[in-house]
Model the fold of this input.
Amino acid sequence: MWATFLAAAGALCTPGAWAGAQDLHKFLIASFPDLKEVGYLKLPETAWRPLIGSDVSDLVSPKALATDNENQRLFVADPPVQKIYWYNMVTKSDGLLETDKTQHIV
Done:
């Protein structure tokens, strides 16, 4: 299942796309620093869903986001701890998005 991830931290960034993707899903991913989590929308839906929270990581104040569509990775900058984390992204069979529940440090 192919997906295009759009990352946002207050502003929409340019998406990447996979050539030849026939069953394409699009997501908008945003950080919520006050909630210490990252969430997403499956476009064109309008309901935010949790993606990375206290069950997966110990984010202090996630700010900047970047996606690597080719490798299906999400990068999250957490300035208070001076770290950048990355997570493997998985598009489930029902079209929803999740991580593999493993936090990596860049």
About this structure: Residues 2-13+23-105 form a domain with the Thrombin, subunit H fold (CATH 2.40.10). Residues 9-22 have pLDDT under 50 and may be disordered. The chain has one domain: 2-13+23-105. Residues 75 and 82 are 13 Å apart (CA to CA).
